Amino acid sequence: MVIQENVALAPLTTFQIGGPARFFVEATSTADVQEAVAFARSRELELFVLGGGSNLLVADSGWPGLVLKIAIPGIDERPGSHEGKILFDVGAGEVWDRFVSRAVVAQCAGVECLSGIPGSVGGTPVQNVGAYGQEVSETVESVEVFDLKDNQIRELCGEACRFAYRSSIFNTSERGRFIILRVTYALTPGGQPRIHYADLKRHFAGRETPPNLAETREAVRHIRALKGMLIVAGDPDCRSAGSFFKNPVLTEVQHDDLRRRAEARGFSVPTYPALEKNRKVSAAWLVENSGFARGYGFGHVGLSSKHALAIVNRGGATAAEVLAAKDQIQHRVQEIWGVRLEPEPVLVGM
Ligand SMILES: Cc1cc2nc3c(=O)[nH]c(=O)nc-3n(C[C@H](O)[C@H](O)[C@H](O)COP(=O)(O)OP(=O)(O)OC[C@H]3O[C@@H](n4cnc5c(N)ncnc54)[C@H](O)[C@@H]3O)c2cc1C
Known about the structure:
Layout: E1 4-8, E2 20-27, H1 30-42, E3 47-50, E4 56-58, E5 63-70, E6 75-79, E7 86-91, H2 96-105, E8 108-109, E9 130-131, E10 134-135, E11 140-147, E12 152-157, E13 178-189, H3 198-204, H4 213-226, E14 249-250, H5 252-264, E15 271-273, E16 279-281, H6 283-288, E17 297-298, E18 301-303, E19 311-313, H7 319-337, E20 346-348
Parallel strand pairs: 2-5, 3-5, 4-20
Antiparallel strand pairs: 1-2, 6-7, 7-13, 8-13, 9-10, 11-12, 11-13, 14-16, 15-16, 17-18, 18-19
The chain binds flavin-adenine dinucleotide (FAD).
Flavin-adenine dinucleotide binds next to strand 3, strand 9 and strand 13.
């Protein structure tokens, strides 16, 4: 294990923003993780676990403790014990989209709609990543973790992760307790791709034969690229952390209030049923209808020219500038629509 000092974090994030890590370790094995944790404890350093850096805003002052980058590799396939599933045991440091590609090539369904999401495998259970009608909660069989509470390695089943919309125990009740080492996904060999989402249905409209997994993967990547939600070298619209705000889930009362406000302005709110009695509202719609069109500028910071929900670093932006833009958007949306937008990325060191 190599311990580095004063390592720039900005290049390790998709936002390309943030100061240095006082100490930095890249762990390629469970033993490295254990050693790094012991080092942090011996120096009383606060630990931050870094994956692919695609869902982070790092403070301009950086991280004063130890940043532990999880780089544990490996994708192994084995037969599952039920419903003819194939289990993929994947190291937390693997690039998520490399695993999706491997699953699609193996003709295994379950993650094809999650093609093109940046970041690591270890990052996917944290906020239960989802896109185009799929979430990892549907396929996570178990998560192998290092438990910082008692230094044990444990296997958490999918249910124990308590997945919900953009959340799990890893970013809520047990935040900071577990380091994810490996994730096991249960996929369906020969399964059909999920074409539930409107964008995908539109993409394949008029076809006589249903698309296969590989075509679905390519369609998702194509649609994502059009929205600046695929990391494409040289595209300034993807210097971001993806969607900066979660889609708010409203109660019936809150939704009625929003509908009334919209009607008063001659709008109707695009909405779809989410959790039981609640309603999920498009955060992008709220942002765009609060005076922040795609491409809106706040100096070094702006909104993506392809998607109003992505705050982008236009070059030389600071975390403070991103936070100021975030505050301005939150304030305006709350003022006009009575809805509080919650940021999706993790704010590190602030
Ligand atoms: C262009 C773009 C598009 C995106 N599109 C989507 C999308 O469609 N859907 C979606 O859900 N998200 C999306 N995201 C957000 C992001 O890609 C995902 O949340 C991703 O899973 C984050 O993984 P990561 O490895 O980059 O995590 P990081 O950003 O490095 O970390 C995020 C959080 O996870 C924790 N973490 C990471 N790895 C581990 C580990 N091994 N053990 C414990 N904790 C860990 C970190 O401590 C931090 O709290 C997008 C981001 C970008 C930049």
